[in-house]
Design a protein that fits this description.
This protein has three helices and 23 strands. It has 384 residues and is mainly β. The strands form five sheets. Strands 3, 5, 8, 10, 11, 12 and 20 form a seven-stranded mixed beta sheet that branches. A five-stranded mixed beta sheet has the order 9-4-2-1-23, covered by helices on one side. The longest helix is centred in the N-terminal third of the chain and has 10 residues. It is elongated and about 85 Å long. It starts with a strand and ends in a 21-residue tail after the last strand.
Length: 384
């Protein structure tokens, strides 16, 4: 039995246009980004002389949808491109770039037309700040959307009945660099103590993928006259809003608290293991995610990788992670020791289609977590 390849589809309410795509997530490999491609099926009997367009957009939103300050909406389109699909401006063969499109065109017939977009190098990846349970309205997010619609020209108001909106994700992949071993060292000098306390913090590698445990090695040489106790190690997510505000969110996503101690004149070397998972942080407000909280395939946001000559402001939000060691020194309120930066990124997904693969069509909507009520805003967070 030949393997089956899932193709996602979404149909407009009046059945005029239907969009078929082989995937919903598109990977930024640092040196190139997966192109967005698919096929549109049109009911030409309903068109009545109108044209069919496809739009790819990247939008940064900050605050509620109705939020308006002195006539300025907290929303910016970072990227918008629109292409006419029908009537065709080029032959289908010139617009067909992938084997998936070829198979879909063959299977769906003469009323099927291909579309193809490439991401520019300066766009951020999908990020959304997790709203709190009492928050209403729009969350802060960088969102990508594919929209298919029909009208007499692309600038007129779009009829929602004859349009399809699909929220896609652009996710970050960073290959592992085994040569980089993150290490941080610092020295504390205490009042009335002749000798200092020396701390060394290290990780086995720089890049960790979602779901992967993070082993942390802590080395403490306590030559001071203070006793050290209650050592804790944590992974902190740092999110900087770089458009419209200078807000900064620092949230601990994994933490191990211990009663480990290092008396004066002794040393300690110990390995700790941290598990930064969204499953352990679902009720935390202000965490940066790579999707919507109610979907099964959502993770903590990957670290932002800003490419050379790209303005940080264009990214909307920047996410990074760092490992922090904290401890209490006798006779003082405590010590917080600087940490080691580390990357958290997506594992590389595999999408391929062989000649013998059969296609299975599924609805575009993502799988919901158990207990989450299905809503009408499933694939269009802009309408939430």
């Amino acid at each position: 039995m030949s393997p089956k390849h899932v193709v996602f589809k979404k149909v407009s309410k009046d059945k005029l246009v239907a969009v078929y795509m082989a995937k919903r997530d598109f990977v930024d490999h640092c040196d190139f980004v997966d192109p967005v491609d698919g096929v549109i099926v049109i009911d030409q009997g309903q068109l009545k002389g109108k044209k069919v367009y496809v739009m790819l957009s990247c939008t940064f939103r900050y605050g509620r949808q109705d939020m308006d300050v002195m006539g300025v909406a907290f929303r910016r389109d970072l990227f918008v491109v629109t292409r006419q699909v029908y009537p065709e401006l080029q032959d289908k063969e010139k617009l067909t770039h992938t084997k998936v499109q070829q198979k879909l065109l063959h299977k769906l017939g003469d009323n099927a037309f291909p579309f193809f977009f490439e991401f520019p190098d300066n766009l951020p990846c999908s990020i959304a700040l997790q709203p709190g349970p009492s928050d209403v309205g729009k969350k802060c997010a960088v969102e990508f959307e594919v929209k298919a619609f029909c009208c007499e020209n692309q600038d007129e108001k779009i009829n929602k009945q004859s349009s399809v909106r699909l929220t896609i994700r652009k996710i970050q992949f960073s290959p592992e660099n085994s040569k980089l071993v993150p290490v941080a060292e610092t020295t504390f000098e205490f009042l009335m103590s002749e000798k200092p306390l020396h701390l060394k913090l290290s990780l086995p590698k720089e890049t960790f993928y979602h779901g992967e445990p993070i082993p942390v090695t802590v080395e403490i040489t306590n030559s001071s006259s203070r006793n050290i106790k209650d050592i804790s190690v944590s992974v902190e997510q740092v999110t900087n809003i770089v458009l419209y505000s200078n807000d900064k969110y620092v949230k601990s996503v994994a933490k191990e608290e211990t009663s480990d101690s290092v008396p004066s004149g002794t040393s300690l070397k110990k390995d700790y293991t941290l598990y930064p998972l969204l499953a352990h942080n679902k009720d935390r407000r202000g965490l940066a995610l790579d999707g919507r909280l109610k979907h099964e395939d959502t993770n903590l946001a990957s670290s932002s990788i800003v490419k050379q000559e790209v303005l940080k402001e264009v990214q909307g939000m920047l996410v990074s992670y760092k490992v922090i060691v904290r401890m209490i020194a006798s006779g003082s309120g405590g010590a917080s020791v600087g940490g080691v930066n580390e990357l958290s990124n997506q594992p590389l997904p595999s999408v391929c289609l062989s000649e013998s693969d059969d296609m299975v069509f599924e609805e575009f909507k993502r799988a919901y977590l158990k207990g989450v009520v299905y809503g009408s805003d499933d694939e269009s967070p802009t309408e939430a």
